[in-house]
Amino acid sequence: DPGATDNFYDLAKFGIKTFAKDKVGELPEELPLGIGSGAISGTVVKGFSRLLKVDTERECECEAAAFYAAYTLGLPVFSFRPNALEAAVLVAESMQSDNPVDPLLSNNGIMKVLIWLMAPVAMERVKYPELIQSDPREASGFLTRLENSNLISREALWWLGDDQERQDMLKWAYTEADLLIRRNQAVVTEIAQRLTGGAATVADCVAAVEDWEVLYMK
Known about the structure:
Layout: H1 2-19, H2 44-52, H3 56-73, H4 84-94, H5 107-127, H6 137-147, H7 163-183, H8 185-196, H9 202-217
Helix pairs in contact: 3-5, 3-8, 4-6, 5-7, 8-9
């Protein structure tokens, strides 16, 4: 399995550099078929960094950004860690005839979901030089899941077959998420602080948004 080999090789290189205190032989920089280059796995070291670095504040900031985006965009979800699968399920469920919310399979609906997925990325990039807690590929993965779904008509996916349109959607979503977070960073920080305390509920987070808006309006 090339993927498993790639994972193991990247992890081995990272482990040697991270944990070895004595001099050890260097592993070769290049292997055949892109193995060890990250071309297959791409995120081994970053994923391992998540395991080694426990940064509660950073994690809560990303969760707060996701919550704030979903709440202000009117999405019927209170997930603090949005991902491609959950987003695709959200769209599919919104298409059910007995669902009380407006279908999200529209230009406006899909863009809202993409902004929600990009919100943690925007928040992390505002404060840190690298991404650890968030992943911008979740947005692209969301579109891919819709494209591969048997439950969704191909005609409904207006970007299908147009790579430029797809890329423009992702760039626009990130830009909008970045603006949303930067313009409302104070309230997002307030939500993050409540989450960092460890006892915050969804109601507490909603109250933070609503209370802030009341104070702002005054």
